[in-house]
Design a protein that fits this description.
27% helix, Uridine Diphospho-n-acetylenolpyruvylglucosamine Reductase, domain 2, Uridine Diphospho-n-acetylenolpyruvylglucosamine Reductase, domain 3, 5-stranded mixed β-sheet, 5-stranded antiparallel β-sheet, single chain, 3 domains, binds flavin-adenine dinucleotide, alpha+beta, Uridine Diphospho-n-acetylenolpyruvylglucosamine Reductase, domain 1
């Protein structure tokens, strides 16, 4: 039986992570159907792969990635029926948001400017201050590593796990193939479009979009019931603009680390750890990263 996935040896991951870190994968796989996902995991057996969506929250810490990498970008179908958007895990959040606009569905505007895939967003429960993707999910189709089969996970199973950048998928490792999103609410084309563009404009004004990054580095810390702005702590510790190699604490928004040239994964991770150390020394606050370090 022919294989419904593409396999490439010796693959440059630079265009597959938003930090534009050069890291070479020994082998990458692109499944392009549910059957392809099933075949691929059966072929891999007990080998643990790295799963990648758009790589906008992932840092490759080494020049070489020895684990096989599975990239979801060809799981890219999207459709709308009976107030449900069915979407492959490799579809970008921007595509999803514009698709919802086309169908006059509101509630997806906040996703337009988050540069991830649907799979990565479900794993991270991506969102903004007010919204998160978990609130939209009706069910997800996954490959369960333990059971070695494809399963549908429904809303009741998923709901208890949605939290600030937390999800069911972080507790029960599986590969997300696709999901169904509730899209009941309607609005006018103009109002949805205005909201999408206004969210985007605010974010572009605030964030360092002229350099590659992987979004906010750290989760917001809560100490004795009090929450702290990470960018303020970093700024007040004198770290705005601090640099290791070509990795730099953003001068525009110190909650971001940016790649101002050819930062290596090691530069980025060293800078992240340096910030953690300085914040702990100065404020006795332990920062935890939002990023996934591979
Ligand atoms: C400029 C910028 C702004 C950002 N703004 C925001 C924001 O406002 N809000 C926010 O939440 N995030 C933000 N992010 C971070 C990031 O875009 C989100 O976390 C996004 O959801 C990550 O999706 P991804 O596909 O890029 O994930 P990846 O980085 O590819 O993967 C992230 C994690 O998800 C897992 N994963 C990916 N696909 C699958 C799959 N199919 N099955 C199982 N696991 C999978 C990976 O293994 C990894 O552990 C921003 C990033 C940047 C660069």
């Amino acid at each position: 039986m022919s294989r419904e996935y593409i396999q490439i040896q010796d693959f440059d991951l630079c265009q597959y992570n938003s930090f534009r870190i050069a890291s070479n994968a020994k082998v990458v796989f692109f499944p392009y159907s549910t059957e392809g996902v099933r075949q691929l995991f059966l072929d891999l057996g007990d080998i643990k792969p790295v799963i990648l969506g758009n790589g906008s929250n992932t840092i490759f810490s080494n020049d070489i990635c020895t684990a096989p990498v599975i990239i979801s970008s060809f799981l890219n179908k999207i459709s709308f029926i009976n107030n449900i958007i069915s979407v492959g895990s490799g579809v970008s959040l921007s595509t999803l948001s514009w698709f919802a606009l086309e169908k006059l569905r509101t509630g997806f505007e906040f996703l337009e400017d988050i540069p991830g895939s649907v799979g990565g967003a479900l794993y991270m429960n991506a969102g903004t201050y007010n919204d998160c993707i978990g609130d939209k999910v009706h069910s997800a189709l996954v490959y369960d590593y333990k059971a070695r089969k494809i399963l549908s996970i429904d809303k009741q199973q998923l709901s208890p796990f949605w939290g600030k950048r937390d999800s069911f998928f972080q507790h029960f490792p599986c590969f997300i193939i696709s999901c169904q999103l509730e899209a009941y609410l309607t609005d006018s084309y103009e109002d949805i479009l205005n909201r999408q563009l206004s969210i985007k404009q605010k974010r572009y004004l605030k964030q360092p979009r002229n350099y590659p990054s992987a979004g906010s580095v750290f989760k917001r810390p809560y100490v004795n019931g009090e929450s702290y702005y990470v960018w303020k702590l970093i700024d007040e510790a004198g770290l705005r603009g601090y640099r290791i190699g070509d990795a730099q604490v953003s001068t525009k928004h110190p909650g971001f680390i940016v790649n101002v040239g050819n930062a290596s994964g090691k530069n980025v991770v060293d800078l992240m750890n340096y910030c953690k150390k300085m914040i702990y020394q100065k404020y006795n606050i332990q920062l935890n990263e939002e990023w996934i370090i591979v």
